[in-house]
Amino acid sequence: MSAPGLAGLTPSAPTASRLVLTGVEQRFRAKDGSTTHALGPLDLDVVDGSFLAVVGPSGCGKSTLLRLVAGFAQPTAGSVEVGGRVVDGPSPDRGVVFQQPNLYPWLSVAENVAFGLKMRHVPRAERRAIVAEHLELVGLADVASRRPYELSGGMQQRVQLARVLANRPSVVLMDEPFAALDAITRERLQDELLRIWRTHRTTVVFITHSVDEAVYLGTRVLVMSPRPGTIVADEPVTFSTSDQAGDAVRDDPAFIEQRRRISAHLRPARNQNPQNPQKESA
C-alpha cells in the first residue's frame, strides 16, 4: 500500500523543485532617501529533494530571502529561479508555511485545507479526495469538521501544512513555523515534518533561529551573517536521513559537535547589532 499524500508532494518533473539564486541582493529605500542594504549578494543552488535549513541573527534577511523565493517581493539585483523558471510572483508551486497558521476562523478544518483548491476550480470530488488524503497525512482526519479555534496551536500548524501540501507545491517554504509552540509540541512537529519529508522528499526551505532545529531537520544548513545577510557557512547534515529520532539523535556526539560548529559561525554576530541596518547615502 502506498503512503498517503504522495501526489501532493512529488514534483511534476525531475528538475521541478531545483532552486537557484544568482547574485541576489535586496535594498530598501527610506523616506529620507537613504538605502538599507538588507540582503546579499547571494548565490545559491538547492537540488531537488533537499531540506535546506537557514539560521542567522535577527534582522539578517532570512525572512526576506524566503519572501523573494515565494515571489512576494522582487530582488533589487540578481534572479531567483525554481525549476528553471524565473520567479516573478507568487505561485501554487511554492507553498508557504508561516509562523502563525493564518487559518480562516469561519471555515472548518477541511474547508481551510480545500480553500486553495477551490480557488483553482478543482472539481469538488477531487477536492474532497485531496483534502482527506492530506488530513490523513498530518494526522488530523478525525477533526475535519472542527473550527480552528477548537484546535491547539500545534494542530493548527498541521492544518496549515496540509493546506500548503494539498496544492502540490514543488517547493515548501517554512518561516519559523514552530517558533511560537512549546518545546514538547515543537519537537513532536519536527518529527512529524521529518516523517512526511523522508517519505516524499519534496524540497523544503526552513527558516529558524534554532541551531538545534536546523541540524535536526536539515540535509544542509546555511548560516547567514548580520545585515546585509550573506552566507558565512554552508554545511551538509545527515541526521535527518537517519533511522533515529528524538533524543537518540540529539545525544549523538556527532550531532553535538555539528551543532557546536554551526553555533561558532554565529558567535561573531553577538558583537554586532543586527537591528542597526547598513545604510547607504542616496
TrEMBL record:
ABC transporter domain segment(s): 19-251
Entries under InterPro entries matching the protein: AAA+_ATPase, ABC_transporter-like_ATP-bd, ABC_transporter-like_CS, ABC_transporter_ATP-bind, P-loop_NTPase
The protein's name: NitT/TauT family transport system ATP-binding protein/taurine transport system ATP-binding protein
Biased composition (Polar residues): 270-282
CDD domains linked: ABC_NrtD_SsuB_transporters (cd03293)
Keywords: ATP-binding, Nucleotide-binding, Transport
N-terminal signal peptide: none
Species of provenance: Sanguibacter gelidistatuariae
PROSITE patterns according to UniProt: ABC_TRANSPORTER_1 (PS00211), ABC_TRANSPORTER_2 (PS50893)
